[in-house]
Amino acid sequence: MKKVVIVDYGMGNLDSIARAVEECGGHALITHEKHDFKAVSNIILPGVGSFAHGMQNIRRLGLDEILNEEVVENKVPFLGICLGMQLFATIGFEGQETKGLGWIEGEVRRLEPDRYHTKIPHIGWNEVNFIKPSPLFKNIPSGKDFYFVHSYHLLCKNDEYVIGRSPYCGSFVSVVCKENIFGVQFHPEKSQRFGLQLIRNFLLL
């Protein structure tokens, strides 16, 4: 059974993600203790809230150091969900200008409505169109709906890392991948059949 650390930095619906991981055959451990990150098979960084607050909590707990060690250096498979994906960026502008983890060069900025009736935040089901193949997408057809709740989005400087996009406010990045690092703007734990399939695929990495 895969041992999966769910990073507890005070931001996110940790219990629902843990239940989804257990349903998909993994053993979930919600923690912020650095020693718990050793000898695990996968790491998930969830997140609900602002970029600035999220990074403040991560740095206050010293989690940026252990994440860089295990994810960047040791290449442990990693999944960022919603705010967790946005924190990959170089910099974010939610709350206040704040440096991110810097794993994917880019900025996190507020969605800009492209029509007068477009509502922000973007809440509800929306399709995810696959740009590039990925093991994360196994047994999931392109164009299926996933559940979103967000007002900000990741603008990648290099499209090489963009593997999925969704139609809202024109189009925004909804899935990224850089080596062992994966990020999804939607909530797979709330996305029923295909959300759980994505988590299963992640656990197989």
Describe this structure in words.
The chain has 205 residues and is an alpha/beta fold. 23% of the residues lie in helices and 30% in strands. It contains 5 helices and 14 strands. It has helices at residues 14-23, 51-60, 63-73, 83-86, 192-203; strands at 3-7, 27-31, 42-45, 78-81, 91-92, 98-99, 106-110, 122-127, 129-130, 145-150, 152-156, 162-166, 172-178, 181-184. The strands form 3 sheets. An 8-stranded mixed beta sheet has the order 2-1-3-4-14-13-12-9. The protein has a 4-stranded mixed beta sheet with strand order 6-5-7-11, covered by helices on one side. Strands 8-10 form a two-stranded antiparallel ribbon. Helix 1 links the parallel strand 1 and strand 2. The longest helix is centred in the last third of the chain and has 12 residues, at 192-203.
The CATH superfamily name is Class I glutamine amidotransferase (GATase) domain
Number of strands: 14
Query: How many separate structural domains?
Result: 1
Largest sheet: 8 strands, mixed
Low-pLDDT stretches are none
- Count the DSSP helices: 5
The ordered H/E elements are EHEEHHEHEEEEEEEEEEH
Tell me the distance between the termini: 13 Å
Question: What is the fold named in CATH at topology level?
Answer: Rossmann fold
CATH top level label: Alpha Beta
Radius of gyration: 16 Å
Apparent shape? globular
Mean model confidence by pLDDT: 97
The proportion of strand residues reads 25-35%
CATH architecture: 3-Layer(aba) Sandwich
What structural class is derived from the secondary structure elements? alpha/beta
Helix content: 10-25%
